[in-house]
Amino acid sequence: MALSDDLRTVLLQAIEDYDFPFVTYDFIENKEIQHQSMRDVEARISEQLLAEKPESIRDGFSNVLYWGYARTGYRWNRITDFRTKATVDKLSRAGKTLRELHRSGVREIAKLQLPQFSGLSFVSKVRMFLDPTNYVVLDIQLLKLRDQERPNIFHEVTHKEKTSIRITQKNQAVYEQWCSICRRIAAKEFGEIGIRAVDVERGVFHLTQTGRMLLAAQIVADA
Fold first, then answer.
1. What is the mean pLDDT of the chain?
2. Which among 5, 45, 144, 180 has most CB atoms closer than 10 A?
3. How many CA atoms lie within 13 A of 167 on its CB side?
4. CA-to-CA distance for 223 and 219, rounded, in angstroms?
5. Comparing C-alpha atoms, which of 95, 38, 37 is closest to residue 61?
6. Domain map of the chain by residue range?
7. CA-closest candidate to residue 103, choices 37, 183, 158, 221
8. pLDDT in tens, 70-97
9. For residue 63, what are the contacts with CB-CB under 8 A and spacing of at least 6?
10. Which residues of the chain have pLDDT under 50?
């Protein structure tokens, strides 16, 4: 199905209005870096995650947390836990896994058993930063769309806990379908202006966060 003109306009505006902080952290200089766009954030984190040096890989995963928890008061608790417990051996194995990743790879990332990266929300953030054209985030906030009467992909998520989504075969399938939906919308509705799968996801996320959940659910269901 194609989106109606009204829904297409709503989604495009939401993509443009997406305002999650464009930030990473320089762990050497101990200072926040303000970026001009999410594409700059993506480039920096991807470079760190795919680096050869364990120290750079540690900074990459730390920046996934720094960005992802930008609007919470416990950001540094999560980062410190990760940086304290992530061993050089685990980081080296993580770097090799990420450089060789195929398809969604969420189970492979979870199997690394890195602290703070066991649930689908943050594992999918890692996958997104590696390839934002094709992969997106399945944030727990999107499960608010299950409260809408319009059936949508998020109704199929199982094993949801209070603050996380467990990685199961079923939830991996839902995640892959969500990526497919976002890729399809990007190509069909906005292919001529360079919108990517992750931009579509961020537009839906922005609608959800700003209380326009019915519109968000309609977009997901009609894609």
1. 96
2. 45
3. 19
4. 6
5. 95
6. 5-19+135-222, 23-118
7. 183
8. 999 999 999 999 999 999 999 999 999 9
9. 24, 25, 44, 45, 48
10. none
